[in-house]
Amino acid sequence: EAGVTQFPSHSVIEKGQTVTLRCDPISGHDNLYWYRRVMGKEIKFLLHFVKESKQDESGMPNNRFLAERTGGTYSTLKVQPAELEDSGVYFCASSHMQTQYFGPGTRLLVL
Amino acid sequence: GQQVMQIPQYQHVQEGEDFTTYCNSSTTLSNIQWYKQRPGGHPVFLIQLVKSGEVKKQKRLTFQFGEAKKNSSLHITATQTTDVGTYFCAGKNDYKLSFGAGTTVTVRA
User: Taking CB atoms and an 8 Å limit, are A45 and B98 in contact across chains?
Assistant: First the structure.
């Protein structure tokens, strides 16, 4: 069974540019989560989808971040315009029941 | 909001020794999960504790959930070089996981 995949693995952009991260969950997992880890700090919850609906987006930092999950399959997280403090590792996780399975993450660096 | 504190942040261990990492939540949890992230990798689920006072073992790893369901610990005996990485606890209320900052473990041979 394929795990959670994320694309790209790394992204280096300039402040003010736009970046879109993609997550493909494990097939059949209705729950999809986005997290972010800034260097050396805790993994912070961003939002949670159940199928195509946003169940909880309380962790989204501000309106420069937009997450979508069209059709309840893969999800995208767009940052527009990117700021320096957006740098970090963005993890996606999916679950069917309790256990969340994490993807490899996208390492984002904003210069 | 819910906060999960984890100590120590760093743990440098002599191979063969034991160590413990601790996790405390500001609120009562429905369950607590532990993850391990190897250097350059992603968090991998280790275990989930649900019941008050629960203790679970995985080979050299012993996980405990406090009686009040607000704290947890991970104890590793006879540390090996394969134990290097960052261990995260994550407290769960409803569907949301709140992660601790992690304990990063290094091992000297």
Answer: yes
Cα→Cα distances B101→A37, B46, B58, Å: 9, 16, 23
Reported as a single tens digit per residue, the pLDDT across A45-97 is 999 999 999 999 989 999 999 999 988 899 999 999 999 999 999 999 999 88
Residue A26: is it exposed, middle or buried by C-beta count within 10 angstroms (0-12/13-18/19+)?
A: middle
Show the beta-strand stretches assigned E in chain B: 4-7, 10-14, 19-25, 31-37, 44-49, 55-58, 61-65, 71-76, 85-93, 96-99, 103-108
pLDDT tens digit string along B74-88? 999 999 999 999 999
- Per residue in B26-62, pLDDT (tens digit) is 999 999 999 999 998 999 999 999 999 999 999 999 9
State how far residue B102 is from chain A, nearest Cα, in angstroms: 7
CA dist B23 → A29, A91, B103 (Å) = 29, 22, 10
Q: Are B19 and B108 in contact (CB under 8 A)?
A: no
**Each residue's pLDDT tens digit, B11-28:** 999 999 999 999 999 999
Quick count: other Cβ atoms within 10 Å of Cβ B56? 16
| C-beta separation of A93 from A32 below 8 A | yes
Q: Does A7 touch chain B (CB under 8 A)?
A: no
Which residue matches tokens 């992690």?
B102
